[in-house]
Amino acid sequence: VTCAAVVPAAGRGERLGTREAKALCLVGGVPLFVHALRSLGASGRLSAGMVVGPPQRCEAMAAAVRAARLDVGWDVVPGGATRQDSVGRGLRDLASDVDVVLVHDAARPFVPVEVVRRVVDAVGAGADAVVPVVPVADTVKQVDGAVVVATPDRSRLRQVQTPQGFRRSVLEAAYTAAAASGAPGQPASDDATLVERAGGQVVVVPGDPLAFKVTGPLDLVLAEALARQHG
Amino acid sequence: VTCAAVVPAAGRGERLGTREAKALCLVGGVPLFVHALRSLGASGRLSAGMVVGPPQRCEAMAAAVRAARLDVGWDVVPGGATRQDSVGRGLRDLASDVDVVLVHDAARPFVPVEVVRRVVDAVGAGADAVVPVVPVADTVKQVDGAVVVATPDRSRLRQVQTPQGFRRSVLEAAYTAAAASGAPGQPASDDATLVERAGGQVVVVPGDPLAFKVTGPLDLVLAEALARQHG
Asked: Are B160 and B132 in contact (CB under 8 A)?
């Protein structure tokens, strides 16, 4: 297989409380998204990648990519208003020989190579769409306003991480279908959901706690502590 | 209201990979459960509390409580085989004038006082059962084996933390009903679920990321970093 990655990195990170784009927040002196690119590339499974950044920060991101001297060639392109727009933008420019696409959150800096490999290899073995998952740590409840209406059986729930892997044609078709439908209802919180809505099958492989997403200030404390530990 | 806390602390912490009981793991030089007791007591809402520990470690836990010189009086009693048994054991020995009960995981060391107060005050204002919640950070999927069968609308899901607060009579009735039913189906992963099963209403109040639960090694890295920051 020929595998490329799309890394949406245009998020503003409101929950982090920073003015800087989240992807450019420094962790151990290195921008968050550069950690993510390095972790993906270390898998040895990628031929190329697209980072989709905030339009006004693409220059800075391209400079950070050059400074990091990564093994994989990464292009930085300007993103859209939503995560879905940004991933769609990244898909548009992939080389024609790419047949497997990973989509990875820029805010998951430390995804282990084993997770990346499991995802790519499961697509290579024939799956249309693959997501890495971990058990749900806290009890999850469904609410209506301030009232609990259900407690779903936790043993059947999984927290979904990235990279999510797709046969390219499947992901492109899902994005085309989502655009055509005018995105009714809730926006999809991940890419696999678009494949599910298009009727495709999504399978799970084991993720890893280290593939956590930096969302709030506490995640940044953890990321800094890990960056210090691992040098 | 007269409010007491029950803190189940008999878990073995397999996911931490330690041999010691999880509650006795040191964070910043202090056992995990002592942080939890201190955080609860700092709310100023507690009259007393019961820690339910592993039978062979109750001596050590009582010594740690004495050494910490906490403002609230905490008894340490031996727990049962399951979390549910342990909470039931703690409930048995509460003073007769207690009318509000908090149940708090020993493995949530840094719950902010505001969260504790919100929970107690909501019960004081008339709620039967109250749980603190935060938004779900990752997409959650429902699986059947290795296949995704649904992606519940994330905007309706909440991650549940502790302390959970209850009118004492409501929690006791829920525990009695659970014991009588012989606990069919899935074991409840939190106490509010028992109230829901007994037909009671559970309401939510805002939790806080700092009320996270120490489950795996990464959580311990975060807890250590926070213990260093906050002295």
From this structure: yes
B127 close to B168: Cβ distance less than 8 angstroms = no
**Secondary structure class of A118 (helix, strand, coil):** helix
Q: Tell me, rounded to whole angstroms, the distance of Cα A190 from its chain centroid.
A: 8
Beta strand pairing call for B74-78 and A147-150: unpaired
User: How many whole angstroms separate alpha carbon A88 and alpha carbon A173?
Assistant: 11
Instruction: Please report, for residues A4, A7, A102, A192, B144, the alpha-carbon distance to residue A128 in angstroms, rounded to integers and kept in the order given.
Output: 15, 19, 12, 10, 17
Can you give the pLDDT of all 231 residues of chain A as single tens digits? 999 999 999 988 777 887 788 999 999 999 999 999 999 999 999 999 999 999 999 999 999 999 999 999 999 999 988 999 999 999 999 999 999 999 999 999 999 999 999 999 999 999 999 999 999 989 999 999 999 999 999 999 999 999 999 999 999 999 999 988 865 556 788 999 999 999 999 999 999 999 999 999 999 999 999 999 875
Give contacts of B 4-63 with A, CB under 8 A: none
Q: Which residues, numbered 116 to 175 in chain A, qualify as contacts with chain B under a Cβ-Cβ cut-off of 8 Å? A: 131, 133, 136-144, 146-148, 151-161
Residue whose C-alpha is closest to residue A136's, from B119, B152, B201: B152
Say if strands B129-135 and B30-31 run parallel, antiparallel, or are unpaired.
Answer: unpaired
Taking only the tens place, the pLDDT of each residue in B141-155 is 999 999 999 999 999
Taking the CA of residue B143 and the nearest CA in chain A, the distance in Å comes to 6
Helix crossing, A113-124 with A32-41: angle to 10°?
50
Question: How far is the C-alpha of A32 from the C-alpha of A109, rounded, in Å?
Answer: 6
B141, B147, B150, B155, B229 from A186: Cα distances, Å: 15, 22, 14, 8, 39
Q: Residues near B115 by Cβ (< 8 Å), separated by ≥ 6?
A: B132, B161, B163, B205, B206, B207, B208, B211
Chain B CB contacts of A186 under 8 Å are 153-155
Are B202 and A147 an interchain contact pair (Cβ–Cβ within 8 Å)?
A: yes
